[in-house]
Amino acid sequence: MHLSEDDTRLFYKIFFRILDYVNEKKQVVPELGKMYGATELDPNLVAKVAQCLWENDSLIDSFLQESSDLDEEEAEILRGWKKHITGDFFIERHLKSGSAFIGENDQVFMVSGISEDLEEDFWGVDLPVLVTSTLIPFKGVIITDGLNARKNVFFGGGVKSMLKETYLKAKSEGRIIKSLDSDPENSSRAAARQKNTNGASARRAGKKKAAYTLKIYPRGRGREVYRVMNISPNSTLADLAESILAAFGFRQTYLFEFCMDNKAYSRNWSACIESESKDIHKKISTLNLSVGQKFLFHKDFADDWQFQITVQKIIEGEDVTYGVIKAKGEIEENLDYDYFDEW
User: What is the pLDDT of residues 39-63, one digit of tens each?
Assistant: First the structure.
């Protein structure tokens, strides 16, 4: 996901206007000259001026008071940048809705690109990747200032698994931060309070479904490889597909189907819910699943990956941990072909 062409131009107008002011005011890189309207810039020099801005964001106020020629909408966007977050982040995955940045205290941010998806900026880079970035709000989404500094650190399976679990846990608990319009700490606390409130309500009611426990294994691989996971009833089938692929370490894809009659290539079309269908966004709670019920997740028809899903338990009125709760064995996805899908 990235900004439109108009919003991209708007971002760079505001960004370079404020950087020109900071550079003139603080003489960070005197030889740099005007950035707004320049046809070529050294990103390393621009980054020095940007660092000065983010370390002294009171300059935003002085700019708006002294010399701003921004209109009110542009000025309001710039004021919002005082909510910026600068630090080190792990980019854990790229999705159609943005890229997952994991920061301090396991906070997960969904970040959009500027002129192109962040996946394009990190093309060919194995994830996770550690970057120093500044996150800023822009018209309801989160973007970076475009000056992401990648650190040449490589991670083993343990770190990858930990970050994957962090992302999936934040997703299942509704804690992924998609806007900086409110303070992210407050957003996380509010999400935690909401989770506790929901749990308390469930205990009082005694009937509210808190999770479905699913056992999932790839067909044709015996029973030596499987995952058991708790999925929220408020999750969608699209969420379940993403969770299954992540649990087995597979790449995200938009080509898949759920076969509710447990038959691949079923002639009962009404039992098949494909990735392009609007029904893929149905909540799990609307499927009327029962204990012992089996259905199929079918991925990338060319490779014909089929995952058997069995409903092991329906948990009611309890606080539960979502995500993978038991795992056995590993499998490798066949990637002999050369294409890259987005979720």
Answer: 888 999 999 999 999 999 899 999 9
Report which residue type is found at 179: S
Domains 85-172 and 208-328 share a fold: no
Higher-scoring residue by pLDDT: 80, 304:
80
Q: Does residue 191 contact residue 174 with C-beta atoms inside 8 Å?
A: yes
- Residue-wise pLDDT tens digits, 223-269: 789 999 998 888 888 889 888 988 888 877 667 889 899 887 776 76
Judge whether 167 and 108 are in contact, CB under 8 Å.
yes
Span 85-172 CATH architecture:
Beta Barrel (2.40)
State residue 80's pLDDT score: 94
- Kindly give, in sequence order, each residue whose CB lies less than 8 Å from that of residue 74, ignoring residues fewer than 6 positions away: 10, 13, 14
Following DSSP, what letter does each residue of 116-152 receive, concatenated? S-HHHHTTTPPSSEEEEEEEEEETTEEEE-S--EEE-
Give the torsion sign (CA, 267, 269, 231, 95). positive
Domain boundaries defined on the chain: 5-83, 85-172, 208-328
Tokens 């893929």, residue located = 280
Query: CA–CA separation, 120 vs 281, rounded Å?
Result: 27
Tally Cβ neighbours within 10 Å of residue 116. 12
Distance CA 109, CA 93 (A): 11
DSSP category for residue 171: H
**Residue 56: φ, ψ to 5°:** -140, 65
pLDDT in tens, 291-300: 999 999 998 7
What is the full DSSP assignment across 152-165? -----HHHHHHHHH
For the chain, count helices (H), then strands (E).
Answer: 8, 13
Spatial distance between the Cα atoms of 133 and 110, rounded to a whole number of angstroms: 13
Identify the three-state secondary structure at position 183: coil
Q: For the domain 208-328, what is the CATH code?
A: 3.10.290.30
Report CA dihedral (85, 77, 49, 106) to the nearest 10 degrees. Answer: 10
Give the pair of three-digit tokens for residue 282.
């149905």
Q: The whole model's pTM is what?
A: 0.56
